[in-house]
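Lab notebook page, bench 4
Experiment: in silico fold of construct C2
Operator: M.H.
Input chain length: 239 residues
Purpose: comparison with the prior construct
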Amino acid sequence: MGKEFKTESGLIYKITQEGIGKRAVAGDKVEVHYTGKLKNDSIFDSSLFRGQPFSFKLGEGKVIKGWDEGIALLNVGDKATFTIPPQLAYGSQGAGGVIGPNETLIFEVELLNIIEAPKPYDVKGKDTLTTASGLKYIKLNTTQGKQAEANKMVQVHYSGYLQDGKMFDSSVERGQPLDFPLGQGKVIKGWDEGIALLKVGEKARLIIPQELGYGERGYPPIIPVKATLIFDVELVEVK
């Protein structure tokens, strides 16, 4: 602890406090406190000043390259100092009039929490059923919970995937289920039909053809044209 290391890309990092939590991997949502400084020690940004940690999905280019690389070296509870060369930061363009061209940046960071990326349901050995509309669904379990009904408010946790396995949206990752009135066209047709098949506490995979999803137009840039969508859903509540 306290020794500086340099990666092949040029990132310099030093662990200043060791945590005992797990290590983040690409696809995880991480929560980080940070203070960013220029080489003259002037602070240009700090989540601590705002009293609000910064969260982002690791390894997806949502932050500068030095952050994607550096945060992946930390365990929850670790504090570290990153010295990030321009090619891993904002390069020759700088940023926002605050960070000049070819600036080396120094970040003091703490990895606070990891919210693991949701894992697709394991549906091996489960029956796939198909409705008259073309919706396919696989129930993972059955319960004695309340049946979903049209015109009732329902609360659903979900993760949505494209056929290549890429997750494009997840209430699980946000920690906030979706509420909507069932059967009123507030969601795609495959959802109105599929959620109506469930009781509270039941989980299912919905395989939704384009006709019951976003059709020939898709939902750029998230949903491609004519996309079959896969949703792993759980009916949390019927109100």
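Observations: The mean pLDDT is 95. The two ends are 53 Å apart (CA to CA).
Next step: discuss at group meeting.
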